[in-house]
């Protein structure tokens, strides 16, 4: 199964946190509507949801690393890092690109 073997251990550890942090999982093949809302394409994908806002988790798939990240995000003063990627539109493209000595641009399709 594409489930994280350490996940149950992570759940136990975070349940003992003060305050306890709930750990959940969802079968994305059944709940595909929910999965697509969070741009889930590979399994397992881990997201930390803070007040409903997803925080991507790109770290190591170990209990230690995941628990540390969740605890970090759970701090009341934690704020998401600013997006490093500039989002270009037809309105700001020329201005941004012409101002940069060098720039990497990804031309993408949203589907």
Describe the 3D structure.
This protein has helices at 7-15, 32-37, 63-74, 93-99, and strands at residues 47-50, 53-56. The chain is mainly α and 111 residues long. Strand 1 and strand 2 (53-56) form a beta hairpin. Helix 1 (7-15) packs across helix 3 (63-74). The mean pLDDT is 88. Helices cover 31% and strands 7% of the residues. It is elongated, with a radius of gyration of 18 Å. The chain has a two-stranded antiparallel sheet. The two termini are 27 Å apart.
Q: Mind summarizing the main beta sheet?
A: 2 strands, antiparallel
**Helix content percent band:** 25-40%
pLDDT < 50 runs, ≥5 residues: none
What is the string of SSEs from the N terminus onward? HHEEHH
Class of secondary structure makeup: mainly alpha
For the secondary structure, the number of strands is 2
**Averaged pLDDT:** 88
Strand order of the largest sheet: 1-2
Q: In terms of topology, how is this protein built?
A:
Elements: H1 7-15, H2 32-37, E1 47-50, E2 53-56, H3 63-74, H4 93-99
Antiparallel strand pairs: 1-2
Helix pairs in contact: 1-3
